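Record filed here:
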Amino acid sequence: MAASCVMQSILVSPVARVNGRTRVNQLAVPASYVPSLRRRNASLRVRSMAEEEQKKQTTTPVTPSRAAPQPQPKSTPSTKVSTKFSDVLAFSGPAPERINGRLAMIGFVAAIAVELAKGQDVFAQISDGGLAWFLGISVVLSLASLIPLFKGVSVESRSEGLMTSDAELWNGRFAMLGLIALALTEYVKGGTLV
């Protein structure tokens, strides 16, 4: 700050004193071009633009409307998801757990239905021609699950009401656990559950 004051005093005055000798300042600039800092009582005022914006917002008059508009429900924007093969089928991607859950839900219901109808356990169902049905249904359901994901449609954008994407995930998880528990119980027991 001291250097700034010295520089301004040199620029303002045409005559400078250096080591007690008077000499003419060659860098002299007329005083009208350089603001003088010699006024000691000059007040410095700093304003924030945020304060000005706040004052403008508070001073605008609000006119009450006769009928308040009804708030419209916001439509859920369709979330863009990556359609790359490696992203869709990644370990934490949208496809693997959903496809496995959907297959487990159908497999669990089919295993219980065949067990009740024919009296066969899960292993007997698979060895009695159930493997071909399992592979066929798995391919069809996997393709049906992957096609919307490759088109960029997110599962969350299509879930409404009671049937949400989270509910489908949890139902699939329980079906996977149920199918494993059914097979393990029948293996330990040595026969059908029912």
Remarks:
- The mean pLDDT is 74.
